[in-house]
Amino acid sequence: MNKIVVLSVLLSAFCFGQKAANQDVQKPIQNLFLAMKNADAELLKSVFSETAILQTVTKDGTVKTDAIPEFISSIGKAAKDDLDERITIEAIHIDGDLASVFTPYQFYYKGKLLHCGANSFQLVKQNNSWKIQYIIDTRRKENCENGK
């Protein structure tokens, strides 16, 4: 009986630790989309590492790179509530100071579904804080209603 109690305590401590770690990794991602929705360039800037990379896989399979400062500037020029990217976190993997997060999404502009796809985030822990180092996403206009 004592072994069962000890095992239960160890498993619950592990699960709680995993949940807290996942929440820490999710925070900059959630802040990214909150900043977009609120057109908050300062909050947006705070989620990225200094050497972050932003890329998109285009419809023809090429990879387009966007500059983070221009992305931040464009978000800051939007009106509040114009940009609404709704994500579902499907997977989080953490190894030390590296995390990987996969999030299918639907992107709404001024309340209208514009496109959908998936984001792949790579995060690094710097000065005890998770920062987005790399984002690559896909974008499509078909099959977006169900988030797939």
User: What is the quaternary state of this protein?
Assistant: single chain
Task: Give the helix/strand class.
Answer: alpha+beta
* Main sheet overview: 7 strands, mixed
CA gyration radius, whole angstroms: 18 Å
Number of domains: 1
Based on CA inertia axes, which overall geometry fits? globular
CATH class value: Alpha Beta
Distance between the termini: 46 Å
Q: Note the run of SSEs as H and E.
A: HHEEHEEEEE
* SS strand fraction: 35-45%
Q: What is the residue-averaged pLDDT?
A: 90
For the secondary structure, the number of strands is: 7
Ranges with pLDDT <50 over ≥5 residues?
9-16
Helix content: 25-40%
Number of helices: 3
CATH topology: Nuclear Transport Factor 2, Chain: A
Query: Architecture, according to CATH?
Result: Roll
